[in-house]
Specification:
Elements lengths: L3 H13 L16 E7 L11 E11 L4 E4 L11 E4 L7 H7 L7 E6 L24 E12 L1 E2 L6 E7 L12 E10 L4 E14 L7 H7 L7 E6 L20 E11 L1 E3 L6 E7 L14 E11 L5 E5 H4 L5 E4 L7 H7 L7 E6 L20 E12 L8 H20 L3 H15 L7 H10 L9 H14 L2 H14 L4 H25 L50 H18 L6
Antiparallel strand pairs: 1-5, 2-3, 2-4, 2-6, 5-6, 7-8, 8-11, 9-10, 9-12, 11-12, 13-14, 14-18, 15-16, 15-17, 15-19, 18-19
Helix pairs in contact: 6-7, 7-9, 9-10, 9-11, 10-11, 11-12
């Protein structure tokens, strides 16, 4: 009665529809579903909700007329139907009947209309001449069933876990992986790709494997073995699998994830890349030195644009001794430290960095040209987290305070303002938990409090204010200089001098922003005002500080050029200040 195309359409509709957990469960009336076993199954195990069932079916009227079938000898394509119990939209009579069947079993299900296509809530349309209002007999052959995880909402990618993996780290773009893998066409049993001896290595995001396979492997952890099932929308071209059968109804891959090669774009624009060469010990990232720690590393410095020339090697240049340094103290180039903090003990990694994260802001080793890109092959031998003040006595805490302050002062003099600020703020943060036990300790504690009203510490306010000015944080800088005047009248002249300098920088930044945004608000809706890079003049020389406006004595000398923020920062902050100012004048910014 129904053609092969009708049967295919019904099968496709069943496969793609999701079930609804909110609908009221249908009850089966007496004699609404009857089952007769034609051939017994292999054992007594039956599928449960959440299992994928694979079966052939043939639909007949009670007169024995074939309406539709998946079998080729009865007009079908010989492609079994694959549904997920409790998740796929499924005929109620089928669902109940399949959950009573064993693998290999063949049974006849006699079902009333309300439990098959005659269900008024059934979402898949059937042809007008389809006998949906009649009692129908379904011959079901249960080929297989398995517990699967649904990777995509449309059930186009399914995964059957055979052996669970270790840890929780899963690969993603631009990670690389090494796997053992076998790909086959289930319908034919034909293997079209096999790498089960020598590992298969590919990179995420480069279309080396089908899109669906990549999505499924992205849910796996190291050591996991799984079967992955793909439907046609996810069988896409793959440069590393030339014989991939793109026209197949479905594909099956057996995958063992041997290694997850972590590749991290540290700043999101390709300027600093960390690639793991050898796994470390522990779980990422909980066992990484994310907090301030004393680190022990060996590293080799390489110039990739100079034929891989090695410009330093701690195993050679340092008598074989590793480099030991404290993180957060500016002792190694910024890019190197950022990556080491995301390594596990024993891990070996290759760090590729542009000059801005390497030696542009750090003492340049011999043989490294200005602006050179570098690579570091680095091994994290071990680390020891810096102890907090828990369990320390008062003297030990005060000694640690002086050490941290000393580090902050050094970083400030080296124009590493963010690192210096972090040290000062750490002292402030930890001081909230310090409780002096007697008057003597109380006096020492009061003298040591930083940035909290003690006139002997206006130097710290000045340092931070200068750092804020350099970064373009003009409001924060002004607040620090005003606080100087409030807590120590003798610093008023010095604070005023710093404020004058701050205001000049702010005016210059706003003037530059006005020029860059010139004409922006003169345009009609939909027009875009563009500013040529030639319209923006480079910064002129800084004004000379008059002798009577010099900074307080004993404050660190800060070279003028170190106070200039980067071009992006200046543009962002000057533009922000510009918009703030015109907003105060009543201009609405859309």
């Amino acid at each position: 009665m129904a053609s092969e195309e009708v049967a295919a359409d019904l099968a496709d509709g069943l496969s793609s529809e999701r079930g609804s957990a909110t609908k009221k469960e249908k009850t089966i009336p007496p004699a609404g579903l009857m089952k007769a076993i034609i051939r017994a199954g292999e054992n007594m195990e039956t599928p449960q909700k959440g299992n994928q069932v694979v079966f052939h079916y043939t639909t007949r009227t009670t007169d024995g007329v074939v309406v539709e079938s998946t079998k080729s000898n009865l007009g079908g394509r010989d492609v079994p139907l694959k549904l997920i119990l409790g998740k796929s939209k499924m005929l109620k009579g089928w669902e109940e009947g399949l959950m009573s069947m064993c693998k290999g079993e063949v049974s006849m299900l006699k079902i009333i209309p309300e439990l098959h296509y005659g269900d008024p809530e059934w979402p898949v349309p059937v042809p007008d001449d389809f006998p949906k209002d009649q009692i129908l007999v379904f011959e079901i052959e249960l080929l297989d069933f398995r517990s699967v995880k649904v990777v995509t909402d449309d059930f186009g990618i399914l995964k059957e876990v055979i052996i669970h993996g270790q840890g929780w780290e899963t690969p993603r773009e631009p990670y690389e992986v090494k796997v053992r893998i076998t790909g086959k066409v289930p319908r034919e049993g034909k293997i079209f790709f096999q790498k089960d001896q020598e590992p298969f290595h590919f990179t995420f995001g480069k279309n080396e494997v089908p899109n669906g396979l990549e999505k499924a492997i992205a849910t796996m952890t190291r050591g996991e073995i799984a079967k992955i099932f793909l439907s046609p929308p996810y069988i896409t071209g793959a440069s590393a699998i030339p014989d991939l059968p793109l026209e197949a109804d479905d594909l099956e891959f057996k995958v063992e994830l041997l290694q997850v090669i972590q590749v991290r774009d540290m700043v999101g624009d390709g300027r600093l890349i960390k690639r793991r060469l050898r796994d470390g010990k522990g779980e990422f990232p909980v066992d990484c030195p994310l907090q301030d720690s004393v680190l022990r590393i060996h590293y080799k410095g390489i110039l990739p644009d100079d034929g891989g020339k090695v410009f330093c090697d701690t195993r050679v240049d340092n008598d074989g001794e590793p480099l030991e340094f404290g993180s957060g103290e500016g002792r190694v180039p910024e890019g190197l430290e950022m990556c080491v903090k995301l390594m596990l003990p024993g891990e070996l990694a290759l760090v590729s960095s542009v000059s801005g994260f390497a030696y542009d802001k750090f003492p340049r080793p011999d043989g490294v040209p200005d602006g050179a890109n570098v690579q570091w092959e680095v091994e994290l031998l071990s680390f020891e987290a810096v102890k907090d003040w828990t369990g320390m006595n008062f003297k030990q805490i005060m000694d640690d305070v002086e050490k941290i302050k000393g580090t902050g002062n050094r970083l400030f003099k080296e124009s590493k303002f963010d690192l210096a600020k972090a040290k000062y703020e750490k002292v402030l943060r930890e001081f909230n938990h310090v409780n002096p036990q007697d008057d003597e300790e109380g006096a020492i504690f009061a003298q040591t409090r930083v940035l909290e009203g003690n006139p002997h510490h206006v130097k710290a306010l000045y340092r931070r204010g200068v750092a804020y000015t350099a970064r373009g944080d003009f409001e924060e800088a002004h607040s620090d200089f005003e606080t100087m005047k409030r807590i120590d009248k003798s610093s008023e002249q010095d604070a005023n001098a710093a404020i004058i300098k701050l205001q000049k920088k702010k005016q210059d930044a706003e003037a530059k922003a006005r020029k860059q945004f010139k004409g922006l608000f003169d345009k009609k809706p939909g027009e875009i005002s563009s500013v040529s890079s030639t319209d923006v003049k480079p910064d002129g020389p800084e004004e000379t500080v008059h002798p009577e406006t010099k900074p307080p004595e004993d404050l660190p000398e800060v070279e003028e050029q170190t106070l200039h923020p980067g071009k992006f920062w200046r543009l962002f902050n000057s533009g922000t200040s510009f918009f703030k100012n015109i907003a105060r004048k009543g201009c609405a910014i859309l």
